[in-house]
Amino acid sequence: MTPEPFQSALPLLSLLVWLPIIGGLITLALGNERAVPARWFATGVAAVTFVLSLLLFTGFDYSTAAMQFVENKPWIPAFDIRYHFGVDGFSVPLIGLTALTSVLVLIGAWGVDKRVSQYYASFLILEGLMIGIFCALDSMLFYVFFECMLIPMFIIIGVWGGPRRVYAALKFFIYTFLGSVFMLVALIYLYMKGGSWQIADMVQLSLSATEQTWIFFGFLLGFAIKIPMFPVHTWLPDAHVEAPTAGSVILAAIMLKIGGYGFLRFALPIVPDAGAEWAWLLIALSLIAVVYVGLVALAQSDMKRLIAYSSVAHMGFVTLGTFIAFSLVRDFGNVDAARLGLQGAMVQMVSHGFISAALFTSIGVLYDRLHTRRISDYGGVANLMPAFAVFYVLFAMANSGLPGTSGFVGEFMVIVASFQKHPLIALVAALTLIISAGYSLWLVKRVLWGPVANDKVAAMKDLNGREMFVLGVFAVFTLALGVWPKPLTDMMEPTIANLAMQIAASKF
């Protein structure tokens, strides 16, 4: 059963959604001729949004799986579509990640001098739309935010991206929009079946095996492309390579997590029997992503493309932990192991948000100085940028799954859960620790160590105060989550326990 929601006296979620959107519109109205006021105002709005997001953590009840801070008002009464917000142990960490990353992105983007107000406005509006996705409890409201989110990212890539920015922006938009059309068909069918757009009501629907299968694949196409899963991942490297640094950071840290969140919010509780039947397929695709895409990353000569492929590999742990839970519950009756897999998937999403954001920010630091992302153009950077080298090595080691960093925690949880399904699955998944160490450390070796490669590298300056602050914050959270993940796991535990019960119960 779905726990009763907690109503909110303060419209905190509405503030978190609409403050950055309205702030973005005001920033846009300031015009590009007021670049300095636009920067300060937009950064201030993002900072206030982050401070407000902290109220979710301080006011959150860690003992219940019920939706909290709920706001529920009519929106389109003719179709019973409601303005329905609420958060639980899945959504609060992702909202916090979104708010924090958005502040750091805007601080890090102060060097941008092209259409400044439009640039900052795009990121503020994007922030509000992404937070709306994590808050929405009405499926149509979720879909509206899900689609609208594509527009500012399309603009960011298409206007401020690299030489092939138009191609990358169109590919990004077509892939993700096409997948969401299938998700929309699934949502419309559920509405026609039950007469409600509310996600909680859809969870309670009784669905046949055939209905669940079609709905499951509708959700799969919508969310797998967003993660992205193998083999629908090919849009991601192009989008990352052509996007500006801030666009790559948001894309990797937040937007990829929306696909994983969608599985947890929709596919698992609404169609649990289809999820159990097709879990083998998702597990297989996840293992291919972990191993094959990791090997593809080893062959890259562009730093951004390498980290983009590594993101696909690491997000494979999210889907592996998510769908291994079905087998553990249905085949073995092992609810504890299933909860561990789901918990590992969520921790991996948050951890990858910090690590990938930090790596793309680091690449942006190098690009700002040398205006190239080709690994062969670098060498001996540690001789000239020792502070940067410390951060870069830390994030590369975290990306390799080094114990003591956040990159280890989620992957370890998923591997342990997978072992209880079959040792071979755990063995294949654990190969990522070797493969990711291979491409991460090889990247560090070629960029940082050795003699100074050329005169351009010799002229590079170490981190300035702004860059030091941004990378320092990412480092603190990467280490804190690696050393002490308990506050995060405690927040998620009631929600995960409730989801494990939902996937254990058949709808037949």
CA(first)-CA(last) distance: 16 Å
User: How many structural domains in the coordinates?
Assistant: 1
Q: Estimate percent helicity.
A: over 70%
The mean pLDDT is 91
Tell me, what's the shape? globular
Main sheet characteristics: 2 strands, antiparallel
**Secondary-structure content class:** mainly alpha
Strand order within the widest beta sheet:
1-2
Radius of gyration: 22 Å
Subcellular location: Endomembrane system; Membrane
GO molecular function, one term: NADH dehydrogenase activity
Transmembrane segments: 12-31, 38-60, 90-112, 119-137, 143-160, 172-192, 212-236, 248-266, 278-299, 306-329, 349-367, 379-402, 422-444, 465-484
Organism: Novilysobacter ciconiae
